[in-house]
Each structure stands twice: as C-alpha cells, then as structure tokens.
Amino acid sequence: MRDMAGAVARTPGPQVFDPKALEKKLPFGGGLLALRKKSGAKTVSVVRLEGVIRPGGGPFGRGALNAHNLETPLADAFSASDAVAVALVINSPGGSPAQSALIGDRIRQLSAKHEKPVLAFCEDVAASGGYWLACAADEIFVSSGTVIGSIGVVSSSFGLAEAIEKLGLERRVHTAGTNKSRLDPFLPEKPEDIAWLAEIQTDIHQVFIDWVKERRGPKLVGADNELFNADVWIGKRAVELGVADAVGSLRTVLAERFPDAKPHEVKPKQQLLQRLGLAASVEDIALRALDGAVSAVERRAMWSRFGL
Q1: Helix, strand, or coil here: 204?
Q2: What digits encode the pLDDT tens for the residues 251-277?
Q3: Full-model pTM
Q4: For residue range 209-250, what is the model confidence (pLDDT) as tens digits?
Q5: Cα gap 104→87, rounded to integer Å
Q6: DSSP symbol at 95
Q7: What angle, rounded to 10 degrees, do the helices at 191-216 and 97-114 form?
Q8: Domains of the chain by range and CATH?
C-alpha cells in the first residue's frame, strides 16, 4: 500500500508494554505504580479510646468503651503486619473498673503476642478508668493541659425516700436473702450498707493501685498518700510525679520515634444498617433513643467532674 507521495506505508508492529515509560507519563511520577513499590511501608496503628467506660455490647453499647466493642479494633491494630507500634489516643473520664481491667489486660496480651510497643497519648482527660487504660501502654504522653490521674473509686446515687413519701407512694420490696436490697434509693441508708460499700471500694482501689505500680514501677515519685488519693494533675506536674512520661503530641512523638512509619487509624467495623443509621424495628429505635438519653446524662455527669 502506498501513500499519496508514492512511498510504501508500513503497518505498525505489535506494541510492547513498557511500565517504566508509562510511569513517566503518569502524573506525580506514576501514582499507582509508586504505591505498589511502597507496599512494604511501615505504619503505626492508632486506636482512639474516647468516651465513658461502661459495659454493653450490641446496639445498646454503641459509643461505649468496653472489652466487647474494642476487641476488633485492638486485634486489628496489633496484628497489622506493617505496624511497628500501636498508639492509644485516650480521652476518657473513666467508668467501670471491671471493663477498664479487661481492656488493659487485653492490650498487654496483644502487645506481648505481637511484640509491639504501646504508646498512650492522653488528650483532654485520662482520669480514673481512663488512666487505667493509659497504664496499659509502655509510655504515657500528655499535653500541657491534660487532666490525668484520679486513682480512686467513686459510687453515686440518689436518696428518694422522702420524695416517695411526699408523693404518697409506698415502697414494697420482697427478697430472699437479708442483703438482697442493699442501698435501695427509696429506703433510708443503713450504716451496715455503707460499711459494706466502703469495703468493696477499698478492694477495688487496691486493685487499681497495684496495677499502676505494676505498670509504672520505679517511675513513680512521691508517697502513696499523694499519688493514690484520687487527685488529678495537669500536664507537666503529672510528668514530675511519674504518672506520665513526657509532654508530647501524637504526630510529633511518632515522627521522632518512627520517622519511616505513617500513623494509620484503626476504627471499629460497623454493620451496613449502622453505617446507614437505620434500625431493625420501631421498638429498636425507641429503645436506642431511651438508652442514648440515659447515657448522655451519665456521660455529662462524669465529664463535669473534671470541669469539661
């Protein structure tokens, strides 16, 4: 076949794919191909522990910090093959001692299993159970304004005995066992009930103290009556007492410790209906609304203890 000038037109031969040539033509030096080359890049898994620590799984435990809700994100964070460490971002006024202990123990188990260090970064507050979780880390960092500590135990309720009397209501309680109705808010307090509660609180307090001493060890500075009287400290003072290790932010510390690794936040997985904000039934919606209202009051009361 000839062209208009009489020259012979040649049919192009088969094209050979050249990835290097293609990469040069792509923007940013070949973004997708570059990503493949960096598949061995390191990360630091980041898990946010934010909110009140309380029991509850399933739909009514949404937003709560407990062993059930945190199992998947913690396991994913530690098992990530490209993760060189795990960072815990903590913002919690505390809550359930049992759930605090379960979460703390699980963090230590996963750290030992996967041989990865744990760093805790405390934001607004890491108090009571929040500090319990921080102690699960190998190092604790605070900001200059972080409220931290409150190594103690608290119980609170209301006394409604006079209220129901004014309303003309009669309280009827039937039990099998003399101690089954201790601390009934609709009945006057009994000295023996208060003594019983104080004994339980003392036992839990000692478990908390033992955990802090186990995790912080020789870093702690000061007498027990100063460290374990449920007081809280701000930023640098916490570092001076050995309650925390240093003042530092997540990005700054990670950039210094792991310059070749990027932070990667690990979030809890949600079901499709949860992601869409849908519920299975009208009853489910009503129960969730009630649970949310009660939880909101509880959360507000706990945060307000620390001026937040």
Answers
A1: helix
A2: 999 999 999 999 999 987 654 444 444
A3: 0.74
A4: 999 999 999 999 989 999 999 999 999 999 999 999 999 999
A5: 14
A6: B
A7: 20
A8: 40-150+231-304 (3.90.226.10), 154-215 (no CATH)
